[in-house]
Amino acid sequence: MDKLKPAALPHLSEEIVESVSLVCDQLQSLPVGLRYRLDVMDFISNREDEYYRTIGSDAWMSSTAGIVWAVSKYIGEELNKESRIIGVDELMEEFFQTRYEKYAIK
After folding, report:
1. Is 1 helix (H, G, I), strand (E, B) or coil?
2. Is 9 in a helix, a strand, or coil?
3. Contact 22/54 with Cβ under 8 angstroms?
4. Helix (H) or strand (E) run with residue 44 in it
5. Which residues of the chain have pLDDT under 50?
6. Which of 1, 51, 81, 105 sits in a 20 to 30 Å window from 64, CA-based?
7. Which of 101, 52, 34 lies closest to 42, judged by CA?
8. What is the pLDDT of residue 10?
9. Alpha-carbon gap, residue 48 to 95, rounded angstroms
């Protein structure tokens, strides 16, 4: 998160920068391994206040989901500005270029 935040924030709209920054800071403080039940139980017992302020709070989870949705919507709109229809010639040129295939059977 520490590396992603400074790279991403300048490209987001001003309305969501503050909330994204706050969520990034909160996510940074959470243990990475919370996908396992034992990790969550350990997190609850050792950092109960933080648990209920973050992932243990329905309001926080909803807010975070809303922020992620807003960021993805903004990114999608920005990427749509760059999209275009490509011609068959360009597609075939790209398709037949030599490329690195790590798992190709030799």
Report:
1. coil
2. helix
3. no
4. helix 37-46
5. none
6. 81
7. 34
8. 81
9. 54
Q: CA–CA distance from 92 to each of 3, 41, 79, 89, 98 (Å)?
A: 37, 54, 23, 5, 12
Tokens at residue 27, please?
């996510």
Q: Which two tokens stand for residue 58?
A: 């329905």
Half-sphere exposure of 40 (CA within 13 A, CB side): 8
pLDDT of residue 58: 94
Structure tokens at 15: 């309305």
Report pLDDT for 81. 79
Query: Concatenated DSSP letters for 67-97?
Result: HHHHHHHHHHHHHHHH--PPPHHHHHHHHTS
Residue type at 52 in one-letter notation: Y
CA 70 – CA 64 distance, rounded (Å): 10
